[in-house]
Amino acid sequence: MTDVGPFGLSVRDQALEADVQAGLAAVEEGLFEATKSEVPFITEAAQHLVRAGGKRFRPLLVMLSAQFGDRHAPGIVPSAVVVELTHLATLYHDDVMDEASVRRGVASANTRWGNSVAVLTGDFLFARASHILADLGPEAVRVQAEAFERLVTGQILETAGPQDGRDPVEHYLDVLGGKTGSLVAVSCRFGAMMSGADDSVVDVLTQYGERLGVAFQLADDVLDIASDSHESGKTPGTDLREGIATLPVLRLRERAARLGLADDVALCELLDSDLTDDARHAEALRLLRAHPALEHARRDTVRYAQDARSALAPLPECAAKAALVELSDAVVHRAG
After folding, report:
1. Which of 54, 96, 157, 331 gets the highest tally of CB atoms within 10 A of its CB?
2. What is the pLDDT of residue 230?
3. What is the dihedral of CA 282, 273, 224, 234, to 10 degrees?
4. Distance CA 324, CA 192 (A)
5. Cβ–Cβ < 8 Å for 25, 8
6. CA-CA distance, 271 to 254, in Å (whole number)?
7. d(CA 313, CA 325)
8. Read out DSSP for 236-277?
């Protein structure tokens, strides 16, 4: 039994382990090949986050989903490269929007080279992903285009905020479905689709990926508050400092509006203040870590992960299904 992929996922089947390891190694080679340019500076910038590592969560899902068809089909590895390149491109853009200084334990591209280079590097990665995608056929192009539209829509909705009368928590979960769930769902869909799996299997795995993607991001929300050292390499409380209301904060505000407790109201006021001040930021983190809203957000994470696991029920029992089940459990364990 060997740990493979993110969160120490344990693969108990030797044949599956060999396939997944070989697939991920091929994806890694593909990422470096896809980020090369005739211009050395572009190569350096484009490979900045590739070299910084990462969980390769989405390529792992492509490899596991491909086990339900011809796991050696030629489109599997390229499709995994496409989803990871797309994900990496969004990170370059996100760091500019969030003014983040650290990503995956290294200086963010915008900190190192400035916002313009970071944005253009993200665009370069999108272009390279599209180039690979063109060889995978029109259906793959359509699937990726729809997912990318959802991803961008989610980002816009997050920036715009909920419309008047819309429940902020529901709005936020819709945002996550677009920003994160869409690309995770495509990872599962590509793996199954490229392997030639039955349409019913493709649909099941797509649903699983959508729910798992939301659970994955909710776990990140919890970790951003709860952990002293964020496992993604980001500084704890980054979203707080930038004034981004993730689920723990939304659950706090929901509780404050419902119960009107003085401590809750005071904490909301603190969160609405200038948290670029280190002392206020540290105090906000301390109070949120001890607040019931954080536990509420953990329960939400568990619910989405359990929904992902339940979606797998129609699939035949096999090593790949067991690994996908364990992956949904691992997401929950990240959130404590």
Report:
1. 331
2. 46
3. -80
4. 13
5. no
6. 14
7. 10
8. TTHHHHTT---HHHHHHHHHHHHH--HHHHHHHHHHTS-TTS
| Residue 274 contacts residue 286 (beta carbons within 8 Å) | no
* Strand intervals (E) in the chain: 2-4, 9-11, 102-103, 106-107
Which pLDDT tens digit goes with each residue over 52-66?
Answer: 888 899 999 999 999
- Residue 300 tokens, joined: 């939400």
pLDDT digits (tens, 9 = 90+) for 231-240: 545 578 888 8
The predicted model gives 130-155 an average pLDDT of 96
190: exposed, middle or buried (Cβ count in 10 Å: 0-12, 13-18, 19+): buried
Q: What's the confidence (pLDDT) of residue 95?
A: 81
The answer to whether 290 touches 248, Cβ cutoff 8 Å, is no
Element housing 151 (H / E): helix 138-160
Give strand pairing partners of 9: 4
- d(CA 188, CA 208) in angstroms, rounded, equals 8
**CA 110/CA 92 separation, integer angstroms:** 8
70: alpha, beta or left? (left if phi > 0; alpha if psi -120 to 50): beta
Contact, 206 vs 188, CB < 8 A? yes
Average pLDDT over residues 192-220: 97
User: Which residues face 103 on adjacent strands?
Assistant: 106
> How buried is 188 (Cβ within 10 angstroms: 0-12 exposed, 13-18 middle, 19+ buried)?
buried
Place of tokens 């905020």: 161
pTM, two decimals, is 0.91
| DSSP structure string for 117-132 | HHHHHHHHHHHHHHHH
